Structures are given as structure tokens and as C-alpha cells.
Amino acid sequence: MRVAMFGYQTWGHRTLQALLDSDHEVTLVVTHPKSDHAYEKIWDDSVAELAGKHDVPVLLRNRPDDPELLDALRAARPDLIVANNWRTWLPPEVFDLPPHGTLNIHDSLLPSYAGFSPIIWALINGEERVGVTAHRMNGELDAGDILVQRAVPVGPADTATDLFHRTVDLIAPIVRESLDLIATGRDAGQWVPQDRSRASFFHKRSPEDSRIDWSWPAERLERLVRAQSDPYPNAYTFHRGQRLRIVSAAVSEGRYGGTPGRIFIREGDGVVIVAGPEAHTGRCPGLVIRRLRTDDGTEYAATDYFRSMGGYLTARP
């Protein structure tokens, strides 16, 4: 088959590499220009550079709806478009252009976690599994029929970085399997409609989404810290007007009462911060901060940074 590809960052890079390693011909690649957005500078393997190394024509676009792109796409005569991590909506004149339409590769177990940063949101929410879905693109966001879906378990200590590596490794086999099914016609009857009653949609993450709310239960805060592991922008809070980025944390063994955000007591190798909507009852665990980082990049053990107990961590300076 002749295949055109829309994609960006490492997800798109892995997808393009799988296409280049296949028996199919890649006739055009469309990718975004580099961005200064914090989350788009992470896992930023260049789709454009990979295409260039293989002499595949490349177009750089923020949006896909200009006439020049449509002309180039028609000239490329794809039998199929494959998309992964294309950051804007593709119109019907694009996704319906090839005979086989457009296969979108999305890093969640659709219909849940459509949209952006699905692994981070899934980890924050305590999901037991994450994964990757190959589905047919239609006019709704990540809503088309599913062809192939694979999952990996989420362990109790997994970070978003761990889950990124585990799920990105699923891309190549899913692309190979999907294209083989489509090319041989064995995809007929294999497409499964999504249960739209189970659908959920998530927005791009921004600095506000990493701000710690000490009224959250400690269990969720601990997952937030793991979800914002390096190289992602860390979960953060403020102490005496200075931002502290939380590098490592755990749920306390003891239960602690009081006001959320109170710097309370040492436990093990960390310092307990009172947390939770029911913290006043004294029946909730706190969050044990183990390691933190200041805005100048200096990292501390929490027991070294908080030399005395008392005072509060706050959401604002």
C-alpha cells in the first residue's frame, strides 16, 4: 500500500519508523514545527528528520487545512493515512481522502482518555491498565471504530515515564498488525464500534494542572507526583513564597489530623504533609515528601530541607 503519515514527537517518530520498516511505501509525511510548549519538548524525536533521512517528502504544518497540503496529499495518492500524535483536528477532506481512510494510533484504551496526555491523567486517576489503540478516524475526537488495542498493567510504583516507555513500545507492533489486516482485507468484520457511554475526553496539561491541592487525598497526590515524574514538569507547591517541585513522595503509614498543607512530622525517610478533604478527622494518611527540588534546580532530601516542623505548604506563593 501507499501510505501517508501525520504525526509528531516520539509517538509519530515510532509510527513513521514502523512504516519505513514495513513492506509499504511511505509517500508523504506531515508533521508540526517544533514547539516551545513544555510538554512538546519532551519525547521530541523529530519526525521531519527521520523522513528526510529516507528521502520522504515532508510538510511542516500547524494545521492541516490549507490548499497546498491537500494538493500534496492528493498527489501522493495514499491508499491509507496513518496518524499518531497529530495535535489538531483533521477535516473529512483529509481523513476520508484515501480508499482505506485514516488509521489513528492513540495512546489510551479508547473510548476512555481521548484527547491529550492520557497516560498522565490515567495514572493520576489510579487506572490499573493503560495502552494503545488503533482506530479509524472520523469526525469526532478519537471516536472511530477500533481495529487493534493492546494494554499494559500499571504497577504501584510506576511513573508516567515508565508507562511512556512501555506504551511507546506497543506502537510498532500495533502499526504492523493493523496494516497487515488492512492490506490483506482481513480487517473486514474486525472493526469494533466504541461504546460512547464510556468515553472520556481530556485537555492538554499546563502548569496549573501540576499545582498541588492539599485537599486531595494523599493517595491521589502520590499518584500526581508519579504522573509528573522527570522529565515532565513536576508537581509543585509553595513554601514561604518559594516554589517547591516534589520529586518523590509516598502515602504515610500513620494517620494524621489537622489542616491540609501542614508540615507536620518526620516519618521514615521523609516529612509528612497533612492532606485530604477529611483531614480534620484524623483518620486520613498524609503525603510523605521524600525529595524536592527548588526553582534553581537544587534537589534536597525533605528531611534536610524542612529542618523544623510547622508552617504550611500552599497552592499559591
TrEMBL record:
Ranges for domain Formyl transferase C-terminal: 206-308
Residue ranges constituting the Formyl transferase N-terminal domain according to the UniProt record: 1-169
CDD domains associated with the record: FMT_core (cd08369)
Pfam entry (one): Formyl_trans_N
Name of the molecule in the record: Methionyl-tRNA formyltransferase
